[in-house]
Design a protein that fits this description.
globular; 9 strands; Rossmann fold; about 25% helix
Length: about 230
Amino acid sequence: MNIQGNNWMFFGKKNTGKTHEALEFARHFFQRNVNPKRIIVFDHSNNTSYKEITDVIPMERLQYQLPKKAIVKVQSDDFDTFAEYCLMYVRNAVVVIDDSSAFFQGNVRGTRLKFLKSPKNNGNEYMFQCHSVRETAPLLLENTDIFVLKETRDDANDLPSKLVGRNRIIPLMNELIEENDTYPSGQKWATRVYDQEEDTIWFKDLRIPLDDVESVFDTYGIMPARDYLNAS
């Protein structure tokens, strides 16, 4: 993880807790004592997972610095304008975007490409969400720093050949299926994280209640990827 900013990709099919996990990581950055980051949700699909975020602002409000303790939601399908405002005005923020792949399909240039390249320069954490690794735009995959993996509808052995960290991600995806098989229906929340910059794997312990810890990070163990996979 880069201390300046990162592109996060949260993968998971429905009811695996993908959006919940994204919001918990966002809260970590919001609540930390050193350099806290405000939260901005780009809700282009009226996702009920964001219903607790009641401060809905017009996109134009992003032209002015939000309070450090702001947790806001922008409801719009105009991603280009949103990305432009983020590039020009948004600093030290977590930006959460669901169903992200459609915004980066094809020959992406201009504002969208600059947005994808900007988190470190602007001190932002961009948290993208998709249901499937294979169906995610290649440009998004190429620029991902941190992969947050839940069970997807992918065949783990049929992932894109140029996927960053493919040899790390395939065994983790198979592991998620095996772990979820031990959980009852509606509680298949197994999670692994691959930080490709640090080449580390984070493994979530679902037995640790979030109410008992200060941050979602406290529910994870972290190991060098090679050591973790050799021990599996």
